Amino acid sequence: MISKNELKFIKSLHKKSERDEFKLFVAEGTKLVTDLIKSGGSINQLLVTKKWVIEHPEVLIDLNLSPLEISESEMERITGLSSPSPILAVFHQPNLAHDIAQNNDSILLLDDIRDPGNLGTIIRTADWFGIKQIICSPNTVDCYNSKVIQSTMGSIMRVKISYQSLPEFILANKSNYTFYGTFMNGNSINNLKFVPKSAFIIGNEAHGISPEVEMLTDQRIAIPGNQLNDGVAGPESLNAAIATSVVLYDWFSKK
Amino acid sequence: MISKNELKFIKSLHKKSERDEFKLFVAEGTKLVTDLIKSGGSINQLLVTKKWVIEHPEVLIDLNLSPLEISESEMERITGLSSPSPILAVFHQPNLAHDIAQNNDSILLLDDIRDPGNLGTIIRTADWFGIKQIICSPNTVDCYNSKVIQSTMGSIMRVKISYQSLPEFILANKSNYTFYGTFMNGNSINNLKFVPKSAFIIGNEAHGISPEVEMLTDQRIAIPGNQLNDGVAGPESLNAAIATSVVLYDWFSKK
User: What interface predicted TM-score (ipTM) does this complex get?
Assistant: First the structure.
């Protein structure tokens, strides 16, 4: 049995202020919850419907889980999805990294990424290419937002994410990293060799990199496209997550 | 003045069956609507609020538009967005291409892409890298779905998109193209040279490329990632739009 207050508390975790206070976040769906557990996620509470237990006996045994069974109508009250999943887990937030990586790793800086799907996809892609640390500007969407979590597919457990002023971060780390800003005009990444400690900056979906951050970049980089070749009008820009993936792939493939 | 029946008709265009019948689609927002017009989109009806007209006199003059003014409550009744935009346009669908490109262009095949945001982003990215034709399997989400349109940013007017059986298309075009299928295991794209007429196949978000299509691919290709390098568990896969962008960038940068 679950109390009304417990249900209310879980529902409240869809708000950033509550997630921040209790250092928890919510994930829904069999694949996502099991991915998070396998990636080292620490469960605070696991709620499932009776139907789910009957259909997934192997998951409980595999992962040694003892969930609380709730009704489908209770699940409907706490879900953040338009159609509720039969499994919802509350996880402890992994510790946010306020210190930067000490070794030779390259990093990613996000300047006001606002779309949760974009942030989730960026975290997943960064993880794929071996980026271990992401520095987000304070106005970047919360990485524990449930839509972000749904698109990270477990990577939220492997990539360290911190929120801090990008200009301050850059000034404090000028000697450690070369800061590459992605712009519509800049050196084509195709012709570039990146330094071992690279920091890639990705700008906001609509406005790009902010002027304060732009001033502090070491190199302007750009993604080549067809409109540069044949002069025909084409798209003005790439989606922020797409731009990130192309830059990270290019960097990764030249390592 | 707009009649109730006209409002009802526009609202009905959020359904695929109605869009198919009348060969129309809906786009909302100043930037998207102006992008579509500048990209050659042919307007069937343009609806704006009084407030929008006052705030955007230059857009009407620039593009030589004569919109119909409707009230905000009328706009609320026809919008497909959670918060309505003050401008909504009904466009004629560009002619679907049933014939394939006759020249040396490379193409993209999509095997059951289901997420509208993914399809829109794929179309925008394909346009960026100069892909002029996309062949979608019949179960791929409708490219005139308003969520697809919102994420294409005008590219829907420049890229020809057709829906047809991928196995049939591949069998009929075996001699024209080399078909590269993206898989979790395959030749790393980093080491590959692509032929001039390449056809890249991207699979469904959850299940990848279907067995019938897999059987017909000429080469299995894969995107290298960090988990191949250091043996640490990482993400199992990349988002479908991200995988597309990495493959197309790699191909484009080697042309």
Answer: 0.91
